Amino acid sequence: MSSARVIAARTIAALVDNKGSLSSHLEKHRAHPEFQLIQEYCYGCCRWFFLLQFFVECLLKKPLKDKDADLLGLLIIGLYQLRQMRTPDHAAINETVEAAIQLKKPWAKALINAVLRNYLRQQQDLEAQLAKQSEAVRHSHPAWLVSALKQQWPGEFDALLLANNQRPPMTLRVNLGRLSRDSYAETLVEAGVKFSVGQLAESAIYLDQPLDISELPGFESGLVSVQDEASQLVAALLDLKPEQRVLDACAAPGGKLCHILESEHSLTGAVAIDLNATRLERVNENLNRLQLDAVVKQADSGDLQSWWDGKPFDRILLDAPCSATGVIRRHPDIKLLRSNAAITKLQQQQLQLLDSLWPCLAGGGRLLYTTCSVLNEENSEVIDRFLANHGDAKYEGVTADWGVECSYGRQLLPLEQIGPDGFFYSLLRKR
Ligand SMILES: C[S@@+](CC[C@H](N)C(=O)[O-])C[C@H]1O[C@@H](n2cnc3c(N)ncnc32)[C@H](O)[C@@H]1O
C-alpha cells in the first residue's frame, strides 16, 4: 500500500496537470488507514501551493521536468510540514526523502534531502524574499485570479485573499419542518457540541469544530443536514407556494433540492436533473434520508427533448456549474485547476443553460440563477447578456439585508471564517 505522502504527492501532480478534482482523487482513498493525513497533506498543499512553489523554485538549481510533477508534489509536502505542521524536522525530511523510492525515483533522494535541508538553513532569508514577492505569491493564489479579484472587489480584496486560505466551518441546516433551531441547539448542548447560530439563514448552525456526520445528533433521522449558510438562503428566495411545480436543473448532490422540499411540503412535483450519475446517487441518498420525494433524472438539462414532458414549471433553480471561486476555502484545488480561459467557457455554458431552460418556465414563473462564483463574468454579466436576448424576461432584484447588491443580483463574499461561502443570486420572472 502506498504511503499517505506518496498518495498526496501523486494527487498534487495530477492537479498540477489539471486532471480530476481533489475530491474525486481523495474518494479513491477513503479506506486508507491514514486517510486523514492524506487529506491534511492535500488540502494544506493546495492551499499553500503557489507560496511553497516559490520556495521550491528558489531552492532548485534547475527546474524539475514536467514528468517529475510527483517530485514537485513531494517537495511541496515536505515544505508544508516544515513550515506549517508540527512535524519534527528530521522526521519530515527523512520520510519525504524515503518516499522517492516508492515513487520509483531513488535518484531524487539526494535532491529532496538538499532542498529541504537548505530550506531549514535559509529559512529567514527565504521568508524575507517571500515578503518582496507579488500578492499572488504571498497569499498563495494564481496571478490571474488575484488580478480579477483586485479589479472586481477592491474594497474586499485583502480580506478575500485571507479568507480563501482559511479552513472552512462546518455548517448545519436544521430541518425546520421537523423542529426549531433552538430545539436542535439544545440537543447539541446535551451532546457537548459547541456551536454558534447563523446570522443570515434561520436554519443555520456553525459548529466550532468539524464533526463526523456519524457523530451528529439526528443526522440519520433527517433532523439536520450539512450545508453552507449561503446555500440555505436559496429556498426562501424561490418564494415557494403549494401546488407549484419546481425544477432543479443542476441538482446534485441535492442540498438545495432537499431544502426546497423541506420548506414547502405541498408542491405538485419536483424534478431534479443532473448530468453526473455518480453525483445523482448522492441526491437519492439525501432524499431517502430526509424522506422526501422528487423525480430524479440523469440528463443534460439544456437538452429539453431528452427529459422534459412539456409541462411548464412555476419555479426553476439553475444552480449553475461555475468556477467555484466563492468556495476556495472548501476546495483549495480550484486555485490550481481554473484559468481565465476556463471562466470564458463557463460563461458560455451558463448562458446556454439559461437560454435552453427558459421555455420550461411558466408565464409569471420565477427562475433563480445561482453560482458559487465571485466573478462578475459568471454572475451579473451572464444575466445582462441573457436579458438582452429575452424580452419576456424581467430581472426581479434580490431584496435582502445581506450581501452586496450587484447590477443583476446579490453577492455574498467569503470574508469571515464563521460566515457563508461566496455565492451569487439573481431572480428572473417570465412576463
Ligand atoms: C453547483 S453544482 C449543483 C449543486 C446542487 N444544486 C446542490 O445544491 O447540491 C452544479 C451541478 O451541475 C451539474 N451540471 C453541469 N452541467 C450540467 C448540465 N448541462 N445539465 C445538468 N447538470 C449539469 C454538475 O454535474 C453539478 O452537479
Explain what you see.
The chain is an alpha/beta fold and 431 residues long. It folds into two domains: 4-133, N-utilizing Substance Protein B Homolog, Chain A, CATH 1.10.940.10; 231-430, Vaccinia Virus protein VP39 (Rossmann fold, 3-Layer(aba) Sandwich), CATH 3.40.50.150. It is 43% helix and 15% strand. The chain has 17 helices and 13 strands. It has helices at 4-16, 22-27, 35-47, 49-59, 69-84, 89-102, 109-131, 135-138, 143-152, 157-164, 181-190, 234-237, 255-263, 277-290, 334-337, 340-357, 380-388; strands spanning 170-174, 195-197, 204-207, 224-226, 245-248, 269-274, 295-298, 313-319, 361-371, 393-395, 404-406, 409-412, 423-430. The strands form two sheets. Strands 5, 6, 7, 8, 9, 10, 11, 12 and 13 form a nine-stranded mixed β-sheet that branches. A four-stranded antiparallel β-sheet has the order 2-3-1-4, with helices on one face. Strand 2 and strand 3 (204-207) form a beta hairpin. Helix 3 crosses helix 5 (69-84), helix 5 runs antiparallel to helix 6 (89-102) and helix 16 crosses helix 17 (380-388). It is globular, with a radius of gyration of 23 Å. The model has no long low-confidence stretch (mean pLDDT 97). S-adenosylmethionine (SAM) binds at residues 231, 250-256, 273-276, 279, 300-302, 319, 321, 353.
Average pLDDT taken over every residue: 97
Poorly predicted ranges:
none
The helix/strand series, from N terminus to C terminus, equals: HHHHHHHHHHEHEEEHEHEHEEHHEHEEEE
How much helicity do the residues have? Answer: 40-55%
Distance N terminus to C terminus? 61 Å
CATH architecture classification of the largest domain: 3-Layer(aba) Sandwich
Shape: globular
* Annotation, overall tally of beta strands: 13
CATH class (first level) name of the largest domain: Alpha Beta
Count, helices: 17
CATH topology of the largest domain: Rossmann fold
Query: How many distinct domains?
Result: 2
SS-derived structural category: alpha/beta
Strand count, sense and barrel status of the largest sheet are: 9 strands, mixed
**Hey, roughly how much beta strand do the residues contain?**
15-25%
